[in-house]
Design a protein that fits this description.
Blueprint (H helix, E strand, L loop, with lengths): L7 H15 L6 H8 L3 H8 L2 H17 L11 H16 L3 H10 L4 H22 L6 H23 L7 H20 L10 H12 L1
Helix pairs in contact: 1-2, 1-4, 1-6, 2-3, 4-5, 4-7, 5-9, 7-8, 8-9
Length: 211
């Protein structure tokens, strides 16, 4: 029996293309359905609505990010893990940069949409990145880590939107700079040990050597 075709991918592509061409506020469910070759009812059934498209795009970017975890993970420094994860997420999103730029430009006049983006997909992505890198996101400390990493990601995202390099070199440089700044700032409040660096790994190595 042939697999049922996934409707979400074409819906995401159609929505991002429409946003890039005419602005996010002008995109309607009818436009999305027509562009993707589907019925409006099927679009709603698949994604729920316009913000549902953004949530699905974010979820797929999260899946691509988590797929970056590999067998060498135990030997990687925490900071390097975070870098690998977030670059994988940017790499997944790079084909939708124009649409994302249109969405973000509409947020100052759409506070509800801005809140939905920050409180939903954004927090989820940072929590997953931390946990996949081996850092707890639980409790007050975890919340602070998510906010700090979210700030570093947001700073890099601005560069990403204008990065036309084929290998995302500008984005990588910006992320490296943001994580380095975060590392230094976090270290000041952690007695010189940042939860975003490989301090935990070094401590484990020291214990192993002493033993």
């Amino acid at each position: 029996m042939p697999r049922k075709k996934d409707p979400v991918g074409p819906i995401i592509d159609a929505t991002m293309q429409l946003a890039a061409m005419g602005g996010w506020r002008n995109v309607t469910l009818y436009d999305i359905a027509r562009e993707s070759g589907m019925d409006v009812a099927d679009v709603v059934d698949a994604v729920g609505g316009r913000m549902g498209v953004v949530r699905h795009l974010a979820a797929r970017a999260d899946q691509a990010m988590l797929a970056a975890v590999d067998d060498d993970w135990p030997d990687e420094a925490i900071r390097d893990r975070l870098f690998t994860l977030l670059i994988a997420r940017f790499d997944h999103l790079k084909g939708h940069r124009e649409g994302l730029r249109a969405i973000l430009s509409s947020l100052p006049t759409d506070p509800g949409g801005a809140i939905a983006l920050m409180a939903g997909p954004g927090q989820r992505a940072m929590r997953l990145a931390l946990e996949a890198a081996g850092i707890s996101s639980a409790g007050i400390a975890g919340t602070l880590r998510m906010k700090a990493l979210g700030l570093a990601y947001a700073q890099t995202f601005r560069t990403f939107l204008d990065d036309d390099s084929p290998d995302l070199s500008r984005t990588m440089a910006a992320l490296d700079k943001s994580l380095s700044r975060l590392d230094r700032l976090a270290g000041r409040f952690q007695r010189g040990r940042s939860p975003f660096s490989d301090g935990q790994k070094h401590a484990a190595d020291a214990e192993a050597t002493a033993g």
